[in-house]
Specification:
It contains 6 helices and no strands. The chain has helices spanning about 10-20, 25-45, 50-55, 70-80, 85-95, 95-125. The longest helix has 30 residues, at about 95-125.
Length: about 130
């Protein structure tokens, strides 16, 4: 397992541990979070929200300096791609936000599902 500068595991290592420990639950949470973000990105792009400005504010995209060529994401967000293509690109840019949500939400969902399963098995024995 690789460790970061502070000795804690990298995001990639933590995601791998999460999928090993929680399996299908982690996959379900990941797909749910990904789909929710994709839907939100689609709505934002469709409603003409200043997505590029928002990404610049939170530091996910940097505006090019004078005379500097803009990056591929900046070019894509500035121009005329399809709404779904723009939403997918934006969703990819949101990876640093989605991953910690998935890491934090998966143990909670697993606990809830475990309690639900335990409650059902307790009721079926009556």
């Amino acid at each position: 397992m690789s460790a970061g500068a502070s000795g804690s595991p990298s995001i990639g290592a933590r995601v791998t541990q999460l999928f090993k420990k929680y399996g299908k639950v982690a996959l379900g949470v990941h797909i749910g979070v990904y789909s929710s973000f994709l839907a939100g990105c689609y709505i934002a792009v469709d409603q003409k929200v200043d997505v590029k400005g928002m990404l610049e504010n939170i530091g996910l995209v940097q505006s090019p300096e004078e005379g500097e060529e803009p990056g591929w994401l900046s070019k894509s967000l500035a121009g005329g791609g399809s709404t779904i293509a723009m939403a997918v690109l934006l969703n990819k840019a949101m990876f640093p936000i989605r991953t910690p949500i998935t890491l934090g939400l998966t143990p909670y969902v697993a606990r809830v599902l475990r309690r639900r399963a335990a409650g059902r098995s307790g009721r079926s024995g009556r």
